Amino acid sequence: MFGGFDVITLRGRDIRMPEPCVLAVGKFESIHLGHRALIGEVVRLAKDNGLASALIVFEPHPYRVLSDSGYKPLFTGPERARLVEGLGVDYMVEHHFDADFAALSGCFFGQKLINELQARIVVVGKGYRFGRGREGTVDTLRLFADVVEVGVNETSTSAIRGLLSENKLTEAEGLLGFPFFIIGDVTPGQRLGRTIGFPTINLYPCEEKYLPVDGVYATRVVIDNKKYRGVTNIGVRPTVADKGAPRSVETYLLDFEGGELYGKDIRVEFLSFIRLERRFDSLEALQVQIAKDCKKVAEL
Q1: What letters, b where the CB count within 10 A reaches 16 and e where it falls short, cover 21-36?
Q2: Could you tell me if 34 and 153 are in contact, meaning their C-beta atoms sit under 8 angstroms apart?
Q3: Element (H, E) at 291
Q4: Which stretch of DSSP H or E encloses residue 248?
Q5: How far is CA 199 from the centre of its chain?
Q6: Helix H or strand E segment including 49
Q7: Can you tell me the distance from the alpha carbon of 13 to that of 163, in angstroms, rounded to the nearest whole number?
Q8: C-alpha dihedral (193, 194, 198, 204), degrees to nearest 10
Q9: Distance (Å, rounded) from C-alpha 51 to C-alpha 47?
Q10: Beta bridge partners of 128
């Protein structure tokens, strides 16, 4: 699932593929089960036809440019790259997306895929639309290359976001094919957790990253390819932090006996919702509640 295959990433506005390819086209925000079925078809076709396999994604997310500048994708670019690494793709093209690019006609976009990205076969989901005003269709693409439409299941990123917002983590995992996760570097916090017997590791994710609702979660934490049970709080830590503090992801590891983790790259996978974040009247009351949370996670 994560890693195990080298992917060459090409980034920018004027990208040229170094070799002919089978190219998957789409938003690919979450690399969910439907996306992976489509990408799997790209890899198969590439092998059968002696071509490279490639995936084009857009940064920033098109929805941020066209509809809502505050939109937060489920996964950051680096997180999505981790997901793609395990799928056997040769190239990932991160094409810059802005208003000028969105204004390209469907025909111009199709020509770009052929002339600059050397797409010999283009793979898209059923009913794929693209270009200015979504004028481009699969028939437009067929003017320039062979096109394969993949009829994947009805998985959608918006449905996954809805489930996460309702704390339905198991159902979201069923659509993703893996637990929702956050990847980041451990950063120094206030070290208050140590004073109440629950030292935590702290992540401050990218501000453009989607986070579930503020609360406490049972998590699985991956550090140096080893897995640990965790109790994770998402939120602003109202008991100990000043008003207006940024949202953070703070995790207490139930069974970790290693040393300092500052600067380490870790992955926090969200398995189950425990409770909403709330303010406590004292550190002692917070300590009691954390102990209860840990017991519940251990039982899970």
Answers
A1: bbbbbbebbbbbbbbb
A2: yes
A3: helix 283-299
A4: strand 248-253
A5: 27
A6: helix 33-49
A7: 34
A8: 40
A9: 6
A10: none
Secondary-structure percent of the chain, ordered helix, strand, coil, rounded to 5: 30, 30, 40
Greatest Cα pair distance in the chain: 69
Phi, psi at residue 184, to the nearest 5°?
-170, 175
- The one-letter amino acid at 97: F
- Helix (H), strand (E), coil (C) string for 173-225: HHHHCCCCEEEEECECCCCHHHHCCCCCEEECCCCCCCCCCCEEEEEEEEECC
Q: Which residue has the tokens 């089978």?
A: 22
Q: What is the rounded CA–CA span in Å between residue 77 and residue 248?
A: 19
Per DSSP, helices labelled H in 103-189 are 106-115, 138-141, 157-165, 169-176
Nearest to 61 by CA among 30, 38, 84: 30
DSSP secondary structure code for residue 44 in this structure:
H
Percent of the chain having pLDDT more than 90? 59
Provide mean pLDDT across the span 45-57.
Answer: 97
Q: Report the side by side order of strands in the sheet with 201-203.
A: 181-185, 265-276, 215-223, 226-235, 248-253, 201-203
pTM flag (> 0.85): yes
How is residue 86 written in tokens? Answer: 């395990």
**134-175, pLDDT tens digit by residue?**
899 999 999 999 999 987 656 789 999 999 999 999 999 999
How many residues can be counted in the chain?
Answer: 300
Q: What is the DSSP letter of 163?
A: H
- What does DSSP assign to residue 65? H
Q: Residues with Cβ < 8 Å from 251, sequence gap 6 or more?
A: 200, 201, 202, 203, 219, 221, 230, 231, 232, 233, 268
